[in-house]
């Protein structure tokens, strides 16, 4: 394990990446693709180790590891391999009239030395995913994975040690102090995934060096269930999106806004789905091997307090509510009768509690969403397309999904990310590649051709002619 805690060691590591970051500017798409293929191969041969690490960290079920940790990364790699040549190619731009005689294009170049700080909830996916973009763009990287998923962080350190020299890609394990020291260094780009609170710390540190940032943050992603929704279909998708990874997903539905006339039917469908997914034989959801656990006691306690707070303030459990501290088991829980004083209404839940609010007309739901910080994702369920269009036009969110949830994360062609409080900048595919790239505008003039003589003195009446 690489423990780089001393400030001197970290800045030395950073210095050591300078020469490499310059030489990578010349690297071809073939060379970068070779590196991506090496990662893909490593993942293939270590699939069982990845599953084991995530099980040890928080009992993440193996199928969830395969589908939500490994598949998004290999899909990101495959997409980059297929498209990298065209992403890197100079893109010609058209010539405006005053520039006639010149040619111009956009040349992407690697930003240089990057820092990737990642969270614990999808620790493999959210570390190696951005790394794929960094490698595709031709950057070096220092990676700081989360201390809350130590087994996966150690595994990531092993992957990097097996495949890369430290002057190209290095992993720094450790707690907040390590991030704090790293953030003092003048990185060319910082890619941070985590909470809005820490996002602000990262952005402040980045400002000292004017390092560019991608901030992939969190928040409360709402779900509107329109009166036109197919409730069985909606419940199937929402319950999966909410309770996969035990609700510890940045784009999980945070709260439901359901039309008052269909609230009871939705709750009934939601209960059927929870039972069907996690306890079809009625043995108790805690026996299910398809349901993960809360990452640590701090988060378990935070969620328990949230639930207690809701119940004290009049919330009603419509399903679940059972918890067990020793195993950090937290039952999928639906709560109705929500009020704005409850912490489930005010804070990002990031766990398996789903508050259900109601509305009577769509404008009410839109106004409520617009009164909150802009969400990472907004979900709309319903077949009334004028209603979905109204929501699309009158709200702001990082992504919007109609008649599904969470799925957009896997769409390589879509920019993924938030807006303001839920994030700055975008990830995935070409958008991730661009996050680690500088789009250099290049203008080429012909020697002896002076089509812009109007710009030069003596100006006389010439300057007037150009406008
Ligand atoms: P976090 O912000 O607490 O930690 C993220 C990383 O930042 C960790 O590596 C941690 O060591 C480091 N860190 C923590 N405090 C720091 C500090 N003071 N200074 C510098 N670095 C610090 O987030 P988390 O608990 O790991 O993850 C949960 C949050 O992340 C939620 O808000 C969730 O919505 C968000 N998230 C967002 C996305 C996304 O793609 N937008 C994905 C996953 C999680």
TrEMBL record:
<comment type="similarity">
    <text>Belongs to the aldehyde dehydrogenase family.</text>
</comment>
<dbReference type="InterPro" id="IPR016162">
    <property type="entry name" value="Ald_DH_N"/>
</dbReference>
<dbReference type="Pfam" id="PF00171">
    <property type="entry name" value="Aldedh"/>
</dbReference>
<feature type="active site">
    <location>
        <position position="216"/>
    </location>
</feature>
<dbReference type="InterPro" id="IPR016160">
    <property type="entry name" value="Ald_DH_CS_CYS"/>
</dbReference>
<dbReference type="InterPro" id="IPR016163">
    <property type="entry name" value="Ald_DH_C"/>
</dbReference>
<keyword id="KW-0560">Oxidoreductase</keyword>
<dbReference type="InterPro" id="IPR029510">
    <property type="entry name" value="Ald_DH_CS_GLU"/>
</dbReference>
<feature type="domain" description="Aldehyde dehydrogenase">
    <location>
        <begin position="24"/>
        <end position="440"/>
    </location>
</feature>
<dbReference type="InterPro" id="IPR016161">
    <property type="entry name" value="Ald_DH/histidinol_DH"/>
</dbReference>
<dbReference type="InterPro" id="IPR012394">
    <property type="entry name" value="Aldehyde_DH_NAD(P)"/>
</dbReference>
<dbReference type="InterPro" id="IPR015590">
    <property type="entry name" value="Aldehyde_DH_dom"/>
</dbReference>
<keyword id="KW-0520">NAD</keyword>
<protein>
    <recommendedName>
        <fullName>Aldehyde dehydrogenase</fullName>
    </recommendedName>
</protein>
